[in-house]
Specification:
Length: 262
């Protein structure tokens, strides 16, 4: 007697992960999502999960309702009053697109950190190199970007409970935050650290926090700064790398980052 076929449904951490996967597989433009097609595929995934008794959680159902709501708004005719005034109607997909772009940046950063971890685990260092280090060398505690991501998530959680500031027309970019961090180092003085979590907590909006965190990752990637921690469970700080001045001497890296995050 033949055994029944086994079907495996891909698992996602959340509804945004599912939507991003659907968009990537079809090579769609994330800023111009075919909402009807994506909604149909999303609902099909939910139906399959229901048939297999997979509990996806309320957030998946809420996203399904959001997609259906967006789809219904796009089917409505354009407001005649706006047409007469020559104004463009707001795209119902805009908020969802912004959430997807933000989530994609987090996902890309996480993938970059995962690749870095795999590389570090497969690199062998010569223990005899310690004999060539100066006695006054203080490398500090070993800290990875994973520790930085964890600390950043804790800052975001604390930020949810603080008062909300009304800020108009704030468009913080990663390149602006890189220059902001440079100014923080110049203000701190030579050989002085910048305590990054303190700087992040001073930002008024979640968007600014995320842009600043991505700026830190970019500066680490460009070898302009290094992440340090003096004491166990102590504050995470950024120190100038030897290439700090060289990175900022030319504006080309900053301009490239500006284009990358557009």
């Amino acid at each position: 007697m033949s055994s029944p076929l086994n079907f495996q449904l891909p698992q996602y951490e959340g509804p945004l992960d599912l939507l991003l996967d659907l968009i990537r597989k079809q090579q769609l433009d994330i800023r111009d999502i075919p909402i009807a097609s994506i909604t149909a595929q999303y609902l099909e995934y939910l139906d399959k999960a229901r048939e297999m008794d997979i509990d996806l959680g309320a957030e998946f159902v809420y996203m399904a309702a959001t997609l259906i709501h967006i789809k219904s708004k796009m089917l409505l005719p354009r407001d005649p009053a706006l047409a007469e005034e020559g104004e463009n109607a707001e795209d119902p997909r805009q908020e969802l697109v912004e959430r997807l772009l933000e989530h994609e940046r987090y996902k890309n950063a996480a993938e970059m950190l995962q690749q870095k971890r795999l590389i570090e685990e497969n690199v062998w260092s010569n223990p005899q190199m310690k004999a060539f280090e100066a006695d006054d060398t203080d490398p500090g505690l070993a800290i990875t970007l994973f520790d930085l991501v964890k600390a950043f998530n804790e800052v975001l959680e604390r930020a949810k409970n603080r008062p909300v500031y009304e800020v108009q027309n704030t468009e913080e970019t990663v390149s602006q935050m890189i220059l902001y961090l440079r100014d923080q180092f110049l203000e701190a003085g030579a050989d002085q650290p910048v305590y990054i979590l303190r700087v992040i907590e001073r930002q008024r909006t979640r968007r600014a926090m995320i842009a600043l965190f991505l700026a830190v990752l970019e500066l680490v990637r460009m070898q302009a700064v290094v992440v340090t921690q003096k004491d166990l469970f102590g504050e995470i700080a950024l120190q100038r790398h030897q290439k700090f001045d060289a990175v900022f001497a030319s504006g080309e890296p900053i301009a490239a980052i500006e284009k990358e995050y557009l």
